[in-house]
């Protein structure tokens, strides 16, 4: 394969950022530690108590002014990041990558994917790490609100008002106008898988 036109300087800069990201991940802020402990406590509560199938555990976040929710069973963990490592040549909905204990996780920007009218974020952001059947990636959020329980029958499965073609990943709406993301559809959509080209 010809390497003509390859931007070695840009790749070197990217590798330097990756190395810096690895060194940063060993130090966690008190806020991040509290988030991890809350997650572990919630997980222990879910596994020790009998499951009520009529209830739905949702992790709720905000992206701009809109609140979203993900079924907690798909959320492996959450973390607060200073910034993502940008990658050249990827689709615009890929915000970048983040290192989590040595694992490289690509991060999807729902702001771009769903064509949300919210302005670009500033400062630190939350990453929700979603996983299902061996597939893992992250989703960016401006704010993390925690875990909430809703009665399944309270979920309105009608599509919300989003731009045409952007409702593929919306499962419905929960009370308080919270849009429920179809995490399974998001995780297993082949269109979102970034592959190396020969």
Work out the count of structural domains. Answer: 1
Q: Averaged pLDDT, please?
A: 78
Q: What is the CA-based Rg, rounded? A: 18 Å
Largest sheet: 5 strands, mixed
- Helix content bin: 10-25%
Give the CA-CA distance, first to last residue.
7 Å
Just name the CATH architecture: Beta Barrel
| Oligomeric state of the chains present here | single chain
- Tell me the structural class: alpha+beta
Weakly predicted, low-confidence segments = none
Largest sheet: spatial strand order: 8-1-2-10-9
Beta-strand content: 25-35%
Number of strands: 10
CATH superfamily name?
CheA-289, Domain 4
User: Could you please say which CATH topology applies here?
Assistant: OB fold (Dihydrolipoamide Acetyltransferase, E2P)
Helix-strand pattern = HHEEEEEHEEEEEH
| Shape assignment | globular
Number of helices: 4
Instruction: Give the CATH class.
Output: Mainly Beta
Summary?
By secondary structure, the protein is an alpha+beta fold.
Notes on the structure:
Helix content is 23%, strand content 34%. It has helices at 8-24, 30-48, 110-113, 183-187, and strands at 55-63, 66-71, 75-81, 94-100, 103-108, 125-132, 135-141, 143-151, 170-174, 178-181. It is an alpha+beta fold and 198 residues long. The protein contains 4 helices and 10 strands. A hairpin with a 2-residue loop joins strand 1 and strand 2. It has a single domain, classed as CheA-289, Domain 4 (OB fold (Dihydrolipoamide Acetyltransferase, E2P)), CATH 2.40.50. The strands form 2 sheets. Strands 8-1-2-10-9 form a 5-stranded mixed sheet, with no helix packed on it. A 5-stranded mixed sheet has the order 3-6-7-5-4.
